[in-house]
Amino acid sequence: MSENEYDVVVIGGGPAGYPAAIRAAQNGLSVACIDEWKNHDGSRAFGGTCLNAGCIPSKALLESSELYHRAASEFSAHGIGLKDLEIDIAAMQGRKSGIVKQLTNGIKALFQSNGVTGLQGHGKLLADRQVEFTDADGNSSVLKANHVVIASGSVPVELPMAKFDGDRIVDSWGALDFEEVPQRLGVIGAGVIGLELGSVWQRLGADVVILEALDDFLFMVDAQIAKEAGRHFKKQGLDIRLGAKMTDAKVEDSGVIVTYEDAGGQQTLEVDKLIVAVGRRPFTDDLFGDGTGVTLDERGFVTVDEHCRTTADNVWAVGDVVRGPMLAHKGTEEGVMVADLIAGKVGEVNYDAIPSVIYTAPEIAWVGKTEAEVKESGAAYKVGTFPFAANGRAKGMEQTDGLVKLIAAEEDDELLGVHIVGPVAGELIAEAVLAMEFSASSEDLQRTVHAHPTLTEAIHEAALAADKRAIHSINKR
Ligand code: FAD
Ligand code: NAD
Question: How confident is residue 476, by pLDDT bands cut at 50, 70 and 90?
């Protein structure tokens, strides 16, 4: 093979693309990964949205703000008094940036040690699996590949009446970089980003109003869990207004004047900063030349089958740019699957067992079907719930908000869904994911020994409760 020929060229170095490149190299293939991510300061980095402007920086700030909030509101219950509690936003942001840098540099190191050629610049798929690569200085070359993996990700949806200006009206990336706490913060969209970033700045002292167009709160979450979470968010002071459709946002010297309509008619709201978080769209700008054979669906996602094959031979697509939940771990599993399939190995993603986590406090995490989805399927089912208020470890942690809800089939007891709102729900859900991956029954969880005292006992008890055998709560007959 010549210098510009590869077994696999991956376009996009986010959590879908870089694992695909690494696994393909582990499989003995020659691989190049092209990525054009550019930071606000002009520097380049692999890792895509997740590492640079998504999962990782948001979780760093969620942790810092949560510690501050707990120190201010909870430490006294432990008998710990704190004088002159202060926030240093610059230090908080510095810690966040340090974590991002370590992890994005880590990808470079992983590429090197696995023999992946990392190329920073723009990639464009041409006909016959040729890929045009343009570097930062505008120099172009053409790479030839036996297989191409598209992993170009997604970008925030921009609303025409509230265009991002990078100062007053920002997307989630801008909201991760505030240099001070806005006094009045508006958020459009009570989805995952709205709730996570709204929580960060509310904990640090902002007055936060979240406008959500739908009448339903967290429509994709099990209704009982969403209701429980909403109750706690309200108690924390998040002002979430449902059925509120923004019609205009005007930037003035004093702030942003937001106009919206709700059941009561036209309303206005003035804020210092406005975060628009109304979803993300697949990113395919300047990605395809003529005659590639790749097609997009009506929503702009690259069309793929269940194994992420596009409509063009030996062109694959993974991650946010294809159907399914826009989650880093979903993209990673797809990238790894594709790299294994290209190498002639077995590869599969179990789309029925992909966990979702919302990193609020309490956290929300789930896997499988909601109760409404199970009901709609017509299958007979049983439900077990268990509150963290009755869990010894949660009490010791002073983290008793929330519950575990488990749904199993009446007929054969197979787990259909597990839903948690509570402390470290995002960690706890792993047990349920593994159980569902192995098609476990609620009885399997009931018979599994859980260490005491741990939060996982709440999952154990919820499984027991599904058969009205919980030990530490009253089983309703
Ligand atoms: P991306 O991460 O978007 O990466 C695509 C890469 O391809 C980018 O670097 C882009 O510059 C590059 N690219 C695009 N086109 C080209 C081209 N033509 N040539 C070269 N390079 C190109 N998910 C979770 O699972 N957990 C979380 O906690 C979580 N938190 C999030 C928080 C926020 C604020 C946001 C915005 C998202 C969050 N997500 C989270 C979603 C997660 O970030 C995405 O699902 C994930 O990054 C998608 O991975 P990807 O590789 O498909 O795309
Ligand atoms: P989202 O789809 O989660 O939520 C968008 C919300 O905005 C919805 O509730 C929607 O009804 C509302 N909305 C849409 N248009 C509106 C309008 N004009 N006015 C008011 N409300 C409106 O999208 P997001 O929060 O932007 O997140 C984007 C993606 O990023 C999600 O798909 C999510 O999977 C991913 N993400 C994941 C995590 C995580 O896993 N913890 C964190 C952040 C983001």
Answer: confident
| Confidence tier at 204 by pLDDT (50, 70, 90) | very high
| 476, part of any domain | no
Q: For position 2, what pLDDT does the model report?
A: 61
Nearest to 444 by CA among 471, 423, 466, 422: 466
Q: Give per-residue pLDDT as tens, 221-241.
A: 999 999 999 999 999 999 999
Measured from the CB, is residue 87 less than 6 Å from ligand 2? no
Q: CA 243 from chain center: how many Å?
A: 24
Rounded Cα distance, 55 and 328, in Å: 8
Residues 408 and 374: their CA atoms lie apart, in Å, by 9
Q: Which atom of ligand 2 is nearest to the CA of 156?
A: 26
- Look up 452 and say whether it is catalytic: yes
The residue segments making up the domain with residue 43 are: 5-155+281-349
Compute the average pLDDT of residues 433-443: 98
- How would you classify the pairing of strands 154-156 and 255-262? unpaired
CATH code of 439's domain: 3.30.390.30
> Ligand 1 centroid vs 328 CA: distance in angstroms?
7
DSSP codes, 346-375: -----GGG--EEE-SSSEEEEEE--HHHHH
